[in-house]
């Protein structure tokens, strides 16, 4: 199985993963950028480069998985639009996954146990977050995703960029490796999708639609709102 994974919920990242049967997937190519507002310019060329470096073309890809967020409107739209276009053009399945789940997987890999939070920057002095519980079999979602002020979150150990932004309100899980600055990455989404598609994980995949969690900042001018002006004769 050859999977292309994309995520633009925070920075922009992609990963091309291959696996045989139920074996753990091997990352053939992985890349990311944290440049703000660079998603659209970076992502499509990065996909082309990933396929070229791996020596494959779109016809060999078996599926696309895309991070559904939560995240800002503009960033999420870029990743989802490209994922839809690629899947349709190649005639292959498209799957969505919650971007925060990728950080939960990373936290489990780093050794976290018990209940914990995953947080990312939601701007407006808020964070996107979800509540997970880890045991010997991995992690499960307890609640979320949500958006809110850092001071409103449960008093649990937390990972993700929200911790670095609000260290006085959020308790770091102290896993090392900069866990207070983590952002979602497509490589972990690809691993999760592989687990779901091979029947090893349940409830991981979702519809490839954006999880915005709040209204857009973009407002339609009053003179353009429905019923406020006449179009045509």
Automatic annotation (TrEMBL):
One of its GO terms (molecular function) is transferase activity. GO terms for biological process: tRNA threonylcarbamoyladenosine modification. CDD domains: ASKHA_NBD_TsaB. One of its GO terms (cellular component) is cytosol. InterPro entries: ATPase_NBD, Gcp-like_dom, T6A_TsaB. It comes from the Bacteria. It holds the Pfam family TsaD. Residues 38-143 form the Gcp-like domain. Keywords: Transferase. The keyword Transferase applies. NCBIfam families: T6A_YeaZ (TIGR03725). This is tRNA (Adenosine(37)-N6)-threonylcarbamoyltransferase complex dimerization subunit type 1 TsaB.
């Amino acid at each position: 199985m050859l999977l292309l994974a994309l995520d633009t919920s925070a920075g922009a990242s992609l990963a091309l993963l291959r696996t045989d049967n139920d074996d753990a997937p091997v990352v053939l190519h992985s890349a990311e950028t944290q440049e703000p507002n660079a998603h659209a310019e970076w992502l499509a060329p990065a996909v082309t480069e990933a396929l070229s470096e791996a020596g494959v073309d779109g016809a060999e890809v078996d599926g696309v998985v895309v991070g559904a967020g939560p995240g800002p409107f503009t960033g999420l739209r870029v990743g989802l639009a490209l994922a839809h276009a690629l899947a349709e053009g190649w005639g292959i399945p498209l799957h969505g996954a919650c971007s925060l789940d990728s950080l939960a997987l990373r936290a489990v890999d780093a050794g976290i146990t018990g209940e914990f939070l995953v947080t990312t920057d939601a701007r407006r002095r808020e964070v996107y977050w979800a509540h997970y519980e880890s045991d010997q079999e991995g992690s499960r979602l307890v609640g979320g995703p949500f958006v809110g002020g850092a001071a409103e979150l449960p008093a649990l150990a937390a990972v993700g960029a929200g911790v670095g932004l609000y260290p006085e309100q959020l308790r770091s899980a102290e896993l090392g490796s900069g866990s207070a600055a983590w952002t979602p990455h497509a490589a972990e989404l690809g691993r999760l999708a592989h687990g779901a598609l091979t029947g090893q994980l349940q409830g991981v995949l979702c519809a490839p639609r954006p999880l915005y969690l709040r209204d857009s900042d973009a407002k339609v001018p009053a003179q353009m709102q429905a019923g406020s002006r006449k179009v045509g004769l």
